[in-house]
Predict the 3D structure of the following.
Amino acid sequence: MSRGRLTAFLRGFWYALMLFLYAPLLVVVVFSFNSINSSARFAGFSLDWYKRLFANDVIMQALWNTAVLATVSTLIAVVIGGMLGYGFYRYRLGRLSWLVWLIYLPVIMPDIVFGIAEMTFFVLINQWLGILAPGLGTMIIAHVTFQVPFVALLVNARLLALDPSLFEAAQDLYASPWQRLSAFLLPTLRPAIAASFLLALTLSIDDFVISFFTAGPESTTLPIYIWSAIRKGVTPEINAIATLMIATVFLIAMLSMLGGRRRRTSDT
């Protein structure tokens, strides 16, 4: 096969793959503007379903719960995961270095197993101590537990890419621990922290299984609402919710990509 034919084949394969991946999402977006209550036939363009969406108090409450859950859990996970990632780097050669492998457990464990384990734990704690009743608080704790590993791994990977002599140079310049943190460590880790923040935020917004097992009656999120409403049939209103979620995740991904491109440009 000539080079030109190979290039044409790979280009065609790329377009076919993109169509396979994103055509279903495009269908959801298109039918969210359908003028009739149908997901099988497009009868015309309309914004009525978006108007009904924003006028629905239940959906707005689910949107608020999703925003609070994603924001609070992500901020907590970035702080804990950042310190954990630094700890893994600092003590990577010690006797407890094997503990770093435990961080992969929440990453590779199936969501349904993790969700059931979290639910069982919260129920037992609530029965014994009368705290951690199912609700937004338990959902935040559950989300932090699966967000922290991703943050720690990204921060640890960034630290491993650094020259170890940089830490020694900071000490040789008589920098205090706070000065090393504020003037060296945090600026150096800024790309990893930003990337981990966006990744953790996206994971929280997208999560359904763990949220479903740890939610309470007043803490319904958008993914849980979509699942409960879709059992009655897919409507343009559900498509409108899904379109807004797709747009949010797409916006986060674009901001992450633009931020990475700006950092690469400034480095050069």
Remarks:
- The chain has a mean pLDDT of 82.
- The longest helix spans residues 57-90.
